[in-house]
């Protein structure tokens, strides 16, 4: 039976989320500890989707995943694909937690269609499809999640179209991060990227000084973060994560529970900790010097109530 398989990893924004929407840079890394696998198989009868978020006829996909519906239609049109299919999506990336789940689903599904049709897929083409799905899912995304899907290295990303408060520089592939460990903790609460982005935008458009100041501060911090990476200073990077979290609090996208977890990670010895991604829930990240310390921090976070944790070398 004809089949195509596509895989995609998660992503973590180390610094610069939200401000990146306004044209300032952000630093993000692919996160290989979690992944989405899409399998497209030829089928008789009606096309079906099987996943943790929906199991049933493809034509009856709920509105909440209209971005996936739209993406599959684009891919079907691209290949003039008429044959009914079974699309299985298995993912270890928790959805709506700021770990890039929606971009990873779109990316894995796009790769599965190209694999099924035995057609090479360029990064440009992948971006084209994933960006369209992300725009439906998130409104006006900066494009950082989609771009990360084409990368295996840390990147410094700036969006390439308007809404810009700063002089944007091109996307850069960064050197390896300083030796150390990353802890990612899922608060268990759904992140609300679209609402968070709209909340910041409303305040920005009203000329809220705190918001403008926080975005400018984040830009400076990301610049310093890039330097810390260039010179391999984990301590400096940790401090910058703390400062970045403070600026994100000013933007109003953290929550009391996440602030509590961040405090818990710092007390357990983290060099720095912050919320990651869209916020209003979702995940936080922390940095540790070595693996035993990282595991100890992750355990503390789980005891404090975090739904899940991951530890990975930086
Ligand atoms: O919540 P996520 O993983 O989709 O990350 C959103 C990042 C933002 O900067 C808040 C929005 C964007 O489009 O860049």
Molecular structure report:
By secondary structure, this protein is of the alpha+beta class. The protein folds into 2 domains: 3-173, Ribosomal Protein S5, domain 2, CATH 3.30.230.10; 181-313, 2-Layer Sandwich (Alpha-Beta Plaits), CATH 3.30.70. The chain is 42% helix and 23% strand. Strands 1, 2, 3, 4, 5, 6 and 7 form a 7-stranded mixed sheet that branches. It has a 4-stranded antiparallel sheet with strand order 9-10-8-11. Helix 1 packs parallel to helix 2 and helix 6 (209-231) runs antiparallel to helix 7 (234-251). The chain starts with a strand and ends with a strand. 49% of the residues are buried. It binds (3R)-3-hydroxy-3-methyl-5-(phosphonooxy)pentanoic acid (PMV). Residues 17-18, 20-21, 98, 100, 138, 141-142, 144-145, 191, 193, 197, 277-278 line the site of (3R)-3-hydroxy-3-methyl-5-(phosphonooxy)pentanoic acid (PMV).
Tag the structure with descriptive keywords.
2 domains; Ribosomal Protein S5, domain 2; 314 residues; Alpha-Beta Plaits; seven-stranded mixed sheet; alpha+beta; 42% helix; single chain; binds (3R)-3-hydroxy-3-methyl-5-(phosphonooxy)pentanoic acid
In short:
The chain is α+β, with helices and mostly antiparallel strands and 314 residues long. Helices cover 42% and strands 23% of the residues.
Give the helices and strands, then pairings.
Blueprint: E1 3-15, E2 26-42, E3 48-50, E4 55-57, H1 66-79, E5 85-91, H2 101-116, H3 123-138, H4 144-148, E6 155-157, E7 172-173, E8 181-186, H5 193-205, H6 209-231, H7 234-251, H8 256-267, E9 272-276, E10 283-288, H9 291-304, E11 308-313
Parallel strand pairs: 3-5
Antiparallel strand pairs: 1-2, 2-5, 2-6, 3-4, 6-7, 8-10, 8-11, 9-10
Helix pairs in contact: 1-2, 1-3, 2-3, 6-7, 8-9
The chain binds (3R)-3-hydroxy-3-methyl-5-(phosphonooxy)pentanoic acid.
(3R)-3-hydroxy-3-methyl-5-(phosphonooxy)pentanoic acid (PMV) binds next to helix 4 and helix 5.
